[in-house]
Every structure is written in structure tokens, then in C-alpha cells.
Design a protein that fits this description.
356 residues, alpha/beta, D-Maltodextrin-Binding Protein, domain 2, six-stranded mixed β-sheet, 13 strands, 20% strand, globular
Length: 356
């Protein structure tokens, strides 16, 4: 009997490929025993991978780079052979800001200026080296708001965003779904912009493993990549979104209502304040090169860390490092070793997997 591999995830809509790979029996199909482990936030995921408490994890795109460089943790060589999805985040502002007349970035700048002697506005992001921090800072800067001087940016685990917004501890946040929709449902905030509108096509989550696991347990690693490739295609099909949202709604996964989860999956967001919006490709789980950890995706993640100003040795953020960590070669090996991943779901074999 194969050993059990521990696979970590944070309760977000984009953990769907991991959950559905388990629910559809895809890990079993490739000879794996996998135990999913729900984690509160990204620092926990990073630390558990780094210290060997998880064999693999759903991770922010830049996290394997940051862990390898020892940014925020001990330095441990990590890599990714699979991009799980593109896009999937949004910026949500508090209803208090709406009452102050904020409707967009320009009016937020006015509100910040008017309240300068009263308070400094605080915004949450999920991790120091994240697309969320990058997108929020970029959005603020475009509207004449200095993210280093005019506001305070703090780290908050995704599941705690909405409750902190409602409690008044945050004035806004950038997080993945469903936590923006949860804030809207709780009448705590409203969505002002989505990452698909601000930086379309950015690599969002990847499968992160330690290098020693990928090398010493190569067959298990490639099998996991292959199973998750199949799950990514399943998650990309609109006809599967109802099933995915019902599954993710279970308390051991994301634990919010299927209705709320479906908003992000479909891209039909209730933005709050009587506003709705259809956002094309709010999530992208699969496509021609979506899942390949290519050089351009590595370059984007490197630039994200570089732009953060949080790397003490920017010279280390080079193409060689990106290629060493974003392993397109291993991605292609998974496709070759497990050829069924080149002919992914048909309706018939989808039903066979569910029945298995």
C-alpha cells in the first residue's frame, strides 16, 4: 500500500483542483494516497512545506521563490511543476468608505486626504510576496495614493478578511474568492475591482513542493502533477461549477455556501451596493499554456518579489533562479509519463472516475 502524502490548502475557491482531484478519485487513479490538510493561511502552508510537515501544497505563485531565498522563513529549496490557476482575486472596500463617498480609487484618494488627521486607512493582503499585495499597491498608486505613506498594509489570512472588515479593523482588502463575496453577503463591504481587470493572466496559485521531495520521490511527485492537471481541466468547465461549489461548501474544505462560491467560479459577482458585474475569466484553471510553469510566469513572480522591496539581495532574482524553481521540464515529464493527461476528460470517462 502506498504511503499517505499530505497536501495542504488554504480555504479559497482556487483550492478546487486539489479538492476535486481527491473527490473524483484522480489521485487514486495515479496510484497515490493523498490526505488533504486545511490550513488557515499562507505562512502556515509555507512553514509546513519547509519543515516537511506537508509533502506538497496549494501555494501563492511567488512562494516557492521566496522560500528558496529564505524570505520570511528558513531557506529551503522548493519548486513548482504546475500552475493551478490564473487570476481569482479582488479588492473589497468597507461600507464605511462608501458612506464617506468613496466609489473608486480617485474618491478613495480624496477620502484619505480628508481623514488624514483622523486616521490612517488600513488594508489587508494575504502574504508579503503575493499578487494580492502587488495588485493592491498598483491600484492605489495608479490613483495617486502612496501605498507606503498614505495607507497601512497588513497581512491577514484570507478567511479572516471579511470578519476584520466588518469589525472595522480593516478599511479594505485584496483577497481571493470567496472572501470578497462573503464580505458583500455580510454587508461589510463592496468589490471595487478584480485582479482579472487589473493584471489579467497573472499566475495565481501553484503546486509547491520541496526540491528533495521532487527528486527523491519523483514518481509520486509527477503522479500528483498529472492528477491535478486533470482536475484543473475539470474545474475549467462551466457545466461542473455547480458540483464544485457544492463540494467546496463542505466545512472540511471552504465552508461557505455554494451560492457564494459559485459567484467567483462563474465570474458573476455581486459587488455590493446594488452593483453586479460579469467578469470574463475571473478564474482560469486550464488552457493552452495555463498550467505550465513557464519562463514568463517565473519572470512575473520574480518581478513581484523585486517590486515588493522586501528582498535584501535583488540580484538573486534572476532568470536562472526562475528556471530552477519554475520547472516546465517536470511539467512536460508528467504529461509524457502519464499520457492520459494529454486526452483529458470526455463526458464518458468523467462519469467513470466519479463512479470509481
Amino acid at each position: 500500500m502506498p504511503r499517505t502524502l499530505r497536501l495542504g490548502f488554504v480555504p479559497l475557491t482556487d483550492c478546487a483542483p486539489l479538492v476535486m482531484a481527491d473527490q473524483l478519485g484522480l489521485f487514486k487513479k495515479f496510484g497515490l494516497r493523498v490526505k488533504l490538510s486545511r490550513e488557515l493561511g499562507w505562512a502556515t502552508v509555507r512553514d509546513k512545506v519547509v519543515h516537511g510537515e506537508l509533502e506538497a501544497a496549494h501555494a501563492i505563485a511567488a512562494m516557492p521563490l521566496a522560500a528558496t531565498l529564505g524570505l520570511g522563513s528558513i531557506a529551503v529549496d522548493c519548486l513548482t511543476a504546475l500552475v493551478l490557476n490564473l487570476n481569482g482575486n479582488a479588492i473589497t472596500l468597507s461600507n464605511d468608505l462608501w458612506k464617506r463617498g468613496v466609489r473608486d480609487g480617485h474618491s478613495l484618494r480624496t477620502a484619505i486626504r480628508d481623514a488624514r488627521r483622523e486616521k490612517i486607512f488600513t488594508f489587508g493582503v494575504v502574504f508579503p510576496f503575493s499578487s494580492h499585495r502587488h495588485v493592491l499597491r498598483q491600484w492605489l498608486s495608479v490613483h495617486g495614493i502612496d501605498p507606503d505613506k498614505d495607507v497601512r498594509i497588513v497581512i491577514v489570512p484570507p478567511p479572516q478578511m471579511a470578519v476584520n472588515l466588518k469589525a472595522g479593523n480593516l478599511d479594505g482588502f485584496c483577497s481571493g474568492e470567496p472572501w470578497n463575496s462573503v464580505a458583500v453577503q455580510a454587508r461589510a463591504g463592496w468589490v471595487v475591482a478584480a485582479s482579472a481587470e487589473l493584471d489579467f493572466g497573472h499566475a495565481e496559485k501553484v503546486l509547491m513542493v520541496r526540491r528533495d521531495f521532487a527528486e527523491q520521490c519523483a514518481n509520486e511527485h509527477l503522479a500528483m502533477v498529472a492528477a491535478l492537471m486533470m482536475a484543473c481541466e475539470f474545474c475549467a468547465k462551466p457545466e461542473n461549477h455547480d458540483e464544485i461549489s457544492r463540494t467546496l461548501a463542505r466545512p472540511e474544505y471552504v465552508g461557505v455556501s455554494a451560492e457564494i462560491l459559485l459567484r467567483g467560479l462563474s465570474g458573476r459577482l455581486d459587488c455590493g451596493q446594488a452593483q453586479t458585474k460579469l467578469i470574463k475569466d475571473f478564474f482560469v484553471f486550464h488552457g493552452d499554456t495555463v498550467n505550465e510553469p513557464s519562463g514568463d510566469k517565473a519572470a512575473w513572480a520574480l518581478q513581484l518579489i523585486r517590486a515588493s522591496g522586501l528582498c535584501p539581495e535583488p540580484a538573486a532574482l534572476n532568470f536562472s533562479l526562475g528556471r530552477r524553481i519554475y520547472r516546465a521540464d517536470l511539467h512536460q515529464q508528467a504529461r509524457k509519463i502519464f499520457p492520459e493527461t494529454t486526452n483529458l476528460f470526455t463526458h464518458e470517462n468523467e462519469n467513470e472516475l466519479i463512479a470509481a
